[in-house]
């Protein structure tokens, strides 16, 4: 029997005889090799709701189960019989009682009655649990509560209990998050997917209303507002009007989705930044669902979802593959992580902010190495940090590389919950549950020692004021060293800490006229000063501290230069209320920091245009201009195309640098300006004391502010409420739309999968150095006027003023493909030092835009790969950074190392992530990118840690390490999917490794199939479908080679030189069959920040 056979079998046919499977088919017999394979790989999924919707009929045999097969049908049936026996047994046990029902107990209320029931960890009487990190206890509780020996087994629970011994072995566990969090940049593509699934259901003649999220989904619209209008009392209204004008179609689509889908809450524009809304309003800490209590947990398609960890809620960023699977009820799979214990002691000195602390922590943890790990903060110093301080530290987990930075719940957490409007009864329930389940920390009592994988410690008194930059968030610079560091950056060669400005040009002055007033810029002049980002605007101490700096400066007669683009974008309306309550907003207004809107703004590149005179002065004189922002990322080209130096700083420091007008200043020695009395004003004259900040917080931040703000949050605003949307359950696609484009995920599907095709003689599309971020790969900011995306929009009648941003266009694959590698600061070694989004078409030597070169390769039928250095894909959890390269025809990325989420997204999109051997890179191997590459993959399966040979046409040979999927479990079902591509229909037959996103898509087929079907190795419902070649592909793009499947294709006579990569042991098994994705399904498969 062919191991890649597909058997469509009704659930009923597994439980009773029928014409193809009489009762004898289920009699015990010695299993064949094929059956043994299926039994070994098979692990069923949850079908309870699915089977209820299916109608029984006879099974259908496809491929291996062929009436004309040389192997007789009876023989095939006998071979498969043991599998069906096992499957029937599994079906019978699907609804079995939780094996841990004995520890399901009541949680009494102090005055009588009960809060609800819960699974009690102490009732297990296992001493190992007492030593588990608190973050691991949340995973344990989830596994116990969801244990059915089906999706989650007792073996999974035991792995977590034995964390100390199992985590180093990189074992995999299932995890079911309580909810999913989205923002609009990622939410639009997610809702597009759901709408597309409904269309498919409708075409297949089934009930499209069955497509709904199965867990709560919260979508906050916060990424679309841009800073067009500043320094105006009317800025909020004006920017919101422009936001709605640009995004009316997107917003209407999301509003339709909020009405069309159950379990989906859409928080309208103007409400705040997603992570602050999550912290102040959406975070439950403890869920009470139908009387069952359990810890809140969340995964989000924004990498800074980790901010909620400061509230004691386990949360982290994931790619859209995982998130959409979780939305549709699939358990996430993850490697049981190591936990780094970070002990904090002492307290922060006067003048030091939480921003200074998080930049220090980020640098320490980056140096320690925490990729793929949890970080858990503990020690008496934690008890001295406010909840907002903790949230600031947790927020930047992606910047220090951890999956999350977790702060267990303590009394400070409970006080914050009360402050933000949670009811007394809710807080009492949360405290009672967490104490009863040993998940509560009391820093006033002796702490039992917990075990960690490794440890770090920091005395908070050692933290000093600092910034980070000019190009990476972990390049911390002490405030006292800022001037000398800046001069070094001017001298250094172009790199993360260098601009290579010649000595004779470093004192250049660019003079210009601004609104009739003489003005000048120098290297280091600040042209953007933005108080923005979820990282800091949720923290009253730094926000009010910024107001105090503005007040002291105004009283001394200092004002920010008018040509500096200043802005204040609070994370929620609560910030505005306490700034007004304190009386400090008027001083911020005097300095130009008017409130411009409630959203991410400058932090994600929505900084808006600079004044034309300022922009011209920068461009014409090649000035290295600076931006200072209270954000969390400062990668090249992210903040603004014209600010080559971008520094992260606390909100008070943002105001201070705006007042100084330059980063070329020593705040300890140099005056900031001259006061109204003619005397020099120094930094120390405007910096508030710790007591002044504390007094402002105490008197201005009031519980009623949170209550009134969030009571109105779902009521929307007049512009949102006036949006008219259809009430239909199916979306009416507009073929002319440049925002929402009907994706071809389910068009032209056939029952037979495409055959495999090797990666052979691929060209190098791009050759990168270190730290290529997802912003380099798929920018979220403005669309450059000379880019392929701009050309596409202009050809369709879109004016330049209406281009909007790449992030806002993520519902249109045609634009996003053109926006891939469109970052204007891209450095491609193939261009010999030239900066920009271009590359060389190797066969002709022609210099083209990356998109045009990729399309030329695709039209020629040539595959491509990418060479890169360390930290490839760092930054936002941007699925388009994997989806875009796939659309460009990239088959593999060979790098020194990968960022966790991006690595998983690459695998999800069928792009092979390969890692150089330790101590090697492209340069050391003599790879220039002008070679042609053939990747040799094993014939059976590719395992993490396994060496893979890559051959070049110039005689090069090397050994590389293959990287699998870091955050998703590769379960036996997944293994069977990858090893037997013909088995899994929801994978469009071997489209996506790990099958997590396709498992979500399987819902379409399982619900809609006219006959009961199986979509995994006799495991999950679905239909045998895969996209037909070229069907539904945008006509403006060359058709993708749907038959492109990496297999061993090396010709030893032709390829005399090879190099080898090795599989990452953190990751999951991949087979040659699943390495490359079928694009018409894959385009649904990624979503991001």
TrEMBL record:
Task: Using the UniProt annotation, give all residue ranges assigned to the region (Disordered).
Answer: 1019-1051
List required co-factors. [4Fe-4S] cluster
The catalysed reaction is: citrate = D-threo-isocitrate
Annotated GO MF terms: 4 iron, 4 sulfur cluster binding; aconitate hydratase activity; metal ion binding
Biased composition regions of type Low complexity, renumbered to the chain: 1019-1039
Which residues are in the Aconitase/3-isopropylmalate dehydratase large subunit alpha/beta/alpha domain?
159-661
Q: Which UniProt keywords apply?
A: 4Fe-4S, Iron, Iron-sulfur, Lyase, Metal-binding
- Write out the similarity annotation: Belongs to the aconitase/IPM isomerase family.
Q: What is this protein called?
A: aconitate hydratase
């Amino acid at each position: 029997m062919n191991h890649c056979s597909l058997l469509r079998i009704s659930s009923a046919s597994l439980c009773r005889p029928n014409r193809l499977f009489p009762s004898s088919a289920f009699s015990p017999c010695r299993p064949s090799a094929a059956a043994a394979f299926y039994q070994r790989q098979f692990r069923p999924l949850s079908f309870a709701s699915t089977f209820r919707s299916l109608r029984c009929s006879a099974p259908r045999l496809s491929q291996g189960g062929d009436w004309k097969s040389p192997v007789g049908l009876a023989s095939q049936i006998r071979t498969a019989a043991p599998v069906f026996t096992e499957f029937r047994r599994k079906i019978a046990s699907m609804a079995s009682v939780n094996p841990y029902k004995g520890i399901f107990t009541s949680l009494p209320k102090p005055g009588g009655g009960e809060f609800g029931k819960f699974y009690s960890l102490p009732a297990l009487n296992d001493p190992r649990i007492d030593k588990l990190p608190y973050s691991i206890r949340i995973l344990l509780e989830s596994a116990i509560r969801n244990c059915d020996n089906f999706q989650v087994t007792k073996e999974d629970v035991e792995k977590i209990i034995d964390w100390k011994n199992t985590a180093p072995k990189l074992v995999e566990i299932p995890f079911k998050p309580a909810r999913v969090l989205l923002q609009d940049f990622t939410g639009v593509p997610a809702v597009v997917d759901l709408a597309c699934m409904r269309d498919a259901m409708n075409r297949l003649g089934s009930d499209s209303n069955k497509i709904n999220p199965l867990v709560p989904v919260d979508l906050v619209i916060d990424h679309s507002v841009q800073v067009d209008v500043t320094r105006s009392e009317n800025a909020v209204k004006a920017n919101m009007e422009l936001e709605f004008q640009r995004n009316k179609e997107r917003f209407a689509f999301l509003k339709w989705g909020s009405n069309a889908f159950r379990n989906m809450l859409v928080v309208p524009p103007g409400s705040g930044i997603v992570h602050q809304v999550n912290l102040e309003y959406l975070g439950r800490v403890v869920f009470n669902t139908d009387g069952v209590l359990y810890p809140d947990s969340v995964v989000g398609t924004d990498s800074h979802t980790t901010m909620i960890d400061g509230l004691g809620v386990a949360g982290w960023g994931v790619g859209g593959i995982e998130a959409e699977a979780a939305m549709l009820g699939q358990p996430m799979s993850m490697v049981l992580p190591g936990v780094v214990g970070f002990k904090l002691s002492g307290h922060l000195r006067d003048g030091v902010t939480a921003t200074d602390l998080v930049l220090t922590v980020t640098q320490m943890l980056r140096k320690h190495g925490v990729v793929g790990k949890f970080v858990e903060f503990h020690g008496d110093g934690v008890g001295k940090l406010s909840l907002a301080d903790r949230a600031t530290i947790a927020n930047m987990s992606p910047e220090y590389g951890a999956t999350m930075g977790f702060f267990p719940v303590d009394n400070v957490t409970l006080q914050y919950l009360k402050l933000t409007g949670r009811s007394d009864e809710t807080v009492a329930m949360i405290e009672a549950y967490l104490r009863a389940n040993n998940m509560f920390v009391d820093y006033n009592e002796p702490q039992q020692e917990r075990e960690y994988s490794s440890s770090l410690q920091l005395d908070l008194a050692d933290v000093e004021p600092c910034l980070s930059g000019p190009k990476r968030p972990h390049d911390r610079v002490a405030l006292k060293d800022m001037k000398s560091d800046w001069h070094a950056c001017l001298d250094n060669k172009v790199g993360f800490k260098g601009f290579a400005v010649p000595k004779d040009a470093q004192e250049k002055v660019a003079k210009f006229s601004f609104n009739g007033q003489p003005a000048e810029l120098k290297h280091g002049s600040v042209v953007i000063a933005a108080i923005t980002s979820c990282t800091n605007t949720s923290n009253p101490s730094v926000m009010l501290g910024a107001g105090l700096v503005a007040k002291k400066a105004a009283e001394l007669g200092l004002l920010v230069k008018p040509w500096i683009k200043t802005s204040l974008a609070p994370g929620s309306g609560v910030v505005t209320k306490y700034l007004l309550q304190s009386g400090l907003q008027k001083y911020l207004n005097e300095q130009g920091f008017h409130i411009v809107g409630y959203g991410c703004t400058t932090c994600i590149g929505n900084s808006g245009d600079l004044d034309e005179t300022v922009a011209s002065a920068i461009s014409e004189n090649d000035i290295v201009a600076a931006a200072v922002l209270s954000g969390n990322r400062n990668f090249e080209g992210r903040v603004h195309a014209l600010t080559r130096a971008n520094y992260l700083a606390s909100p008070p420091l943002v105001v201070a640098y705006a007042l100084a007008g330059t980063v070329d200043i020593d705040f300890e020695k140099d005056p900031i300006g001259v006061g109204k009395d003619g005397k020099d004003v120094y930094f120390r004259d405007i910096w508030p004391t710790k007591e002044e900040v504390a007094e402002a917080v105490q008197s201005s931040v009031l519980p009623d502010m949170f209550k009134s703000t969030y009571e109105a949050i779902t009521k929307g605003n007049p512009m949102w409420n006036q949006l008219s949307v259809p009430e239909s359950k199916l979306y009416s696609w507009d073929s002319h739309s440049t925002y929402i484009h009907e994706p071809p995920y389910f068009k032209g599907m056939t029952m037979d999968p495409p055959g495999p095709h090797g990666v052979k003689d691929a060209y190098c599309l791009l050759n990168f150095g270190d730290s290529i971020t997802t912003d380099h790969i798929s920018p979220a900011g403005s669309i450059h006027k000379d880019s392929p995306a701009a050309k596409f929009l202009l050809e369709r009648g879109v004016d330049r003023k209406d281009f909007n941003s790449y992030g806002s266009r993520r519902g249109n694959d045609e634009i996003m493909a053109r926006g891939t590698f469109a970052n204007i600061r891209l450095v491609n070694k193939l261009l010999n030092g030239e900066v920009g989004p271009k590359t060389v078409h190797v066969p002709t030597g022609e210099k083209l835009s990356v998109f045009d070169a990729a399309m030329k390769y695709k039209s020629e039928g040539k595959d491509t790969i990418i060479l890169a250095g360390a930290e490839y894909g760092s930054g936002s959890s941007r699925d388009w950074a994997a989806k875009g390269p796939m659309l460009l025809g990239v088959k593999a990325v060979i790098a020194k190392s990968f960022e966790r989420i991006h690595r998983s997204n690459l695998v999800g999109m069928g792009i092979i992530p390969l890692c150089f051997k330790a101590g090697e890179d492209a340069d050391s191997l003599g790879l220039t990118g002008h070679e042609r590459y053939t990747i040799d993959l094993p014939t059976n399966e590719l395992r993490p840690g396994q060496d893979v040979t890559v051959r070049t046409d110039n005689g090069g040979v090397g050994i590389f390490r293959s990287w699998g999927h870091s955050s998703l479990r590769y379960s036996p079902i997944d293994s069977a999917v990858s090893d037997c591509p013909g088995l899994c229909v929801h994978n469009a037959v071997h489209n996506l490794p790990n099958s997590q996103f396709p498992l979500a898509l399987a819902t379409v087929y399982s619900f809609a199939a006219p006959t009961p079907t199986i979509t995994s190795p006799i495991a999950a419902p679905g239909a045998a479908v895969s996209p037909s070649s070229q069907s539904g592909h945008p006509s403006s793009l060359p058709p993708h080679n749907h038959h492109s499947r990496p297999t061993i294709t090396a010709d030893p006579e032709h390829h005399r030189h090879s190099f080898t990569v090795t599989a990452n042991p953190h990751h999951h098994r991949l087979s040659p069959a699943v390495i490359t994705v079928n694009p018409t399904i894959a385009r649904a498969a990624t979503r991001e920040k």
